[in-house]
Design goal:
This protein folds into three domains: 81 residues, Helix Hairpins (Orthogonal Bundle), CATH 1.10.287; 99 residues, Urease metallochaperone UreE, N-terminal domain (HSP40/DNAj peptide-binding domain); 118 residues, Sandwich (HSP40/DNAj peptide-binding domain). The chain is an alpha+beta fold. The longest helix is centred in the N-terminal third of the chain and has 17 residues. Its cofactor is Zn(2+). Its main location: cytoplasm.
């Protein structure tokens, strides 16, 4: 049985990617692996097929919602993974699946479940240091609140008299054909109640809600990772009389840092050293993500790529008392623009080493010895 790769990974995008950025990523990947540019390369051809399959699903809002909820299982069953049979979800059938996928967004599910207002999605950018310490952010959202004129009844008449909805005839639901799907959703006229007001409120026009900008305080915990989604129950849009408000989903984007790079709970910092520091050994002071400094002893003979570990100097792990580590990656820098005297000193150093550099430079000596043996063997 073949293993399906995550569609988002195939296109190298996050799960919160916008439709515009999704299209850009698809074009970039498709151009890179197009068969005309990789003639005879079967791997590139297979990759190109995967890219098109992934984009075909993610560009469609309904298919993407199904994939986000059920993964590849949503498209198994005889249609080549491109919007297929929806097998494996029990005897409820396609209608139940769409009720599960879109029930919350459309204001509830079949079977008398409570109706809800629309959910709100918002993205918040924070710095790496804010992700380390945690932060409380004020987020401005465009939402709908309970109408202050009619107090959510939708009626200008204090009695709030209603009549049967003419659109759904009291069912609270309507059906629509979308391609080969028959989708059942909440009635857009009565919002699932099956009733409409006889004398609509002049402020909200009978909806029971009105548009408003609000500022919501979001508590972002320490150790949060890029792409984390925070759910704030009941902070979404109001839905009118007798309808529970939706939820607010805050997508956290952690910006890159000029000094530190993060990998899970661990932090990496590249420290360049002068050639003399690496050769003679030294002690350097490096910054820590918590805003402090610490000293790291560099032994003599340190090479580029060597790593020094600072325990417990990384990120905290969500829902855990564990903490990551900080790693110092060393890069030895060769000097540029030597003065005459510096060049003389280096030439003296080279002369002093003589023909045998094995002790001073074992790696390069070993490499060129292998090269010599290679040519002699030929």
């Amino acid at each position: 049985m073949s293993i399906k790769i995550d569609y988002y990974e195939i296109l190298e995008v996050s799960r919160t990617v916008s439709s515009g950025d999704l299209k850009k990523a698809y074009r970039k990947q498709a151009m890179r692996y197009h068969p005309d540019r990789n003639q005879g390369d079967e791997t590139a051809e297979q990759k190109f097929k995967e890219i098109n399959e992934a984009y075909d699903v993610l560009k469609d809002d309904q298919k993407r919602a199904a994939y986000d909820r059920y993964g590849h299982d949503a498209f198994e069953g005889g249609m080549g993974g491109m919007g297929g049979g929806f097998s494996g979800f029990g005897a409820g059938g396609l209608g139940d699946i769409f009720d599960q996928m879109f029930g919350d967004m459309m204001g509830g599910r079949r079977g008398g479940a409570r109706r809800t207002g629309a959910d709100i999605q918002v993205q918040v950018e924070i710095s790496l240091t804010e992700a380390y310490s945690g932060i409380n952010k004020d987020v401005e959202i465009q939402t709908r609140i309970t109408c202050e004129t009619c107090h959510g009844t939708g009626s200008a008449d204090p009695s709030g008299s209603t009549t049967t909805c003419a659109t759904c005839h009291g069912a609270g639901k309507v059906r629509a054909q979308q391609g080969f799907f028959l989708v059942e959703r909440m009635c857009p006229t009565c919002h699932g109640s099956g009733r409409t007001v006889q004398n609509p409120c002049k402020t909200c026009h009978g909806s029971g809600t009105e548009a408003k900008k609000e500022t919501i305080s979001v508590d972002i915990p320490a150790g949060v990772e890029d792409g984390t989604r925070i759910r704030m129950a009941g902070k979404g849009e109001a839905g009118g009389d007798g309808v529970q408000p939706g939820d607010l989903y805050v997508h956290v984007a952690v910006m890159s840092h000029e000094i530190f790079q993060r990998d899970g709970a661990n932090i990496y910092c590249r420290v360049p050293l002068r050639m003399t520091q690496a050769a003679l050994g030294t002690e350097v002071e490096v910054p820590v993500i918590d805003g402090t400094r610490t000293k790291v002893r560099i032994p003599s003979g340190t090479q580029t790529g060597e790593t020094f570990r600072l325990r417990g100097k990384g990120f905290s792990v969500l829902r855990s008392s564990a903490r990551g580590d900080m790693y110092i990656n060393v890069g030895v820098e060769t000097p540029h623009h030597l003065t005459k005297r510096q060049r003389e000193l280096l030439e003296e150093f080279e002369t002093e080493a003589g023909d045998d550099h094995t002790k001073a430079n074992p790696e390069s000596s070993g490499f060129f010895a292998k090269v010599r043996d290679f040519f002699e063997g030929r």
